[in-house]
Amino acid sequence: MKNFPDSYYLTLLSHIFTKKEAAELVSDLRNFNRELYETKKDFAEKLSENLTEGQQEKILKLRDILNLEIEKPEVFNELVDGLDAYIDQIAEITVHTARGLPQKTIQKIGLWFENNLNRKVIIDSQVDQSLIGGAIIASQGKQFDNSVKSKLNKAFEQGFFKLTNLPYE
Is residue 124 a part of any domain in this protein? Predict the structure, then answer.
């Protein structure tokens, strides 16, 4: 398999912040290539039928600016295979919250991590109904617990709340 520069993959992954979005992109690109090969339609025509406008722009940028012959099914397949392998190596950050995060918040979190770590990250948003509020952020075996549940547990452990001093008996 041909190795493409990371910049090719980063171009395709710009504005992709979740595992689900990355998997959908790879699936869309594989389906596009399969249909292009089967129907023998014009590349640009098939591109507009199968991919979003943003995806089309990224593919055409790779083709035109980088002189990549992606009209050839084998070249396109190598690009998608490489993208899939590249995605598997991206740092994954799991964010646990009491409720699911809106897409705009996921994007902000992803951009913050990318800007501060200087590398692409994938956000995995998980709902943990045992949390009251706040978030637990985990990546590569490390965890930052900024949940309300954790803070309340610490307050109880440190004796800030004494059940014997309650006015109700």
Answer: yes
pLDDT at residue 2 above 70?
no
35 and 68 inside one domain: yes
Q: What is the mean pLDDT of residues 100-105?
A: 92
Confidence of residue 106 (pLDDT cuts 50, 70, 90): very high
Same structural domain, 131 and 106: yes
* 70 and 100 co-located in one domain: no
Rounded mean pLDDT, 4-32: 89
Contact 52, 125 (CB under 8 A): no
End-of-domain residue from the set 88, 114, 130: 88
pTM for this entry: 0.74
Residue 113 identity: F
Mean per-residue pLDDT, 134-155: 89
Residue/partner pairs of 19-28 with CB below 8 Å, 24 or more apart: 19/92, 19/122, 19/124, 22/87, 22/90, 22/122, 23/87, 25/55, 25/83, 26/80, 26/83, 26/84, 26/87, 28/52, 28/55
Q: Which domain holds residue 45?
A: 6-88
Q: Which of 93, 98, 104, 92 is nearest to 135 (CA)?
A: 98
Whether 16 and 66 map to the same domain: the answer is yes
According to the model, what pLDDT value does residue 71 have?
A: 76
